[in-house]
Amino acid sequence: MELEINMYAILVAVVANFVLGFIWYTPLFGKVWGKEMGYDPNEKPDKSVMFKGLAFMVIGNFLFAYVLSHNIAAWKFVPGMDQMSPFASALNSAIFTWLGFYLPGQLGATVWEKNSWKLFAINTGYHLTSLLVVAFIITYWIW
User: Fold this and answer.
1) Which of 49, 32, 50 is nearest to 41 (CA)?
2) Is the alpha carbon torsion for 130, 26, 124, 39 positive or negative?
3) If pLDDT is split at 50, 70 and 90, which confidence band does 77 have?
4) How many Cβ atoms sit within 10 Å of the Cβ of residue 72?
5) What would the 3-class secondary structure string for 56-87 be?
6) Concatenated DSSP letters for 88-119?
7) Per-residue pLDDT at 110 exceeds 90
8) Hey, which of 3, 4, 71, 120 would disulfide with 110, CB 3.0 to 4.6 Å?
9) Is residue 72 a contact partner of residue 139, using CB atoms and an 8 Å limit?
10) How many Å separate Cα 101 from the centre of its chain?
């Protein structure tokens, strides 16, 4: 048995996730997120810091899509999972990954770091949306 990993799907997912992150944290929630993070809206970040952040974001997006792709491919070997539609499989992968790995970490960070629940909603909403987008791209590409 071999895991079915499609690098084209992963690369498309990386680009889609990058675009989603830009849209989520710029026009949709950028001002509110910046305020909740305590950033001065008049201060522009240094270009070298921006490029470094973008580079690490792309690397992180790649690792995220690559590992999620392995997870989705591995689930196909579980008895009965081949009966599940691609839609249900993608939804299952995204929601359970979010519930088990992203939501608990964000809950802890919100309480321990004394972040606002508004910031919690923005960040966890992004993570769930990101998981859904990437899971659907990967699942439909390999199903």
Assistant:
1) 32
2) positive
3) confident
4) 27
5) HHHHHHHHHHHHHHHHHHHHCCCCCHHHCCHH
6) HHHHHHHHHHIIIIIHHHHHHHHHHTT--HHH
7) yes
8) 120
9) yes
10) 11
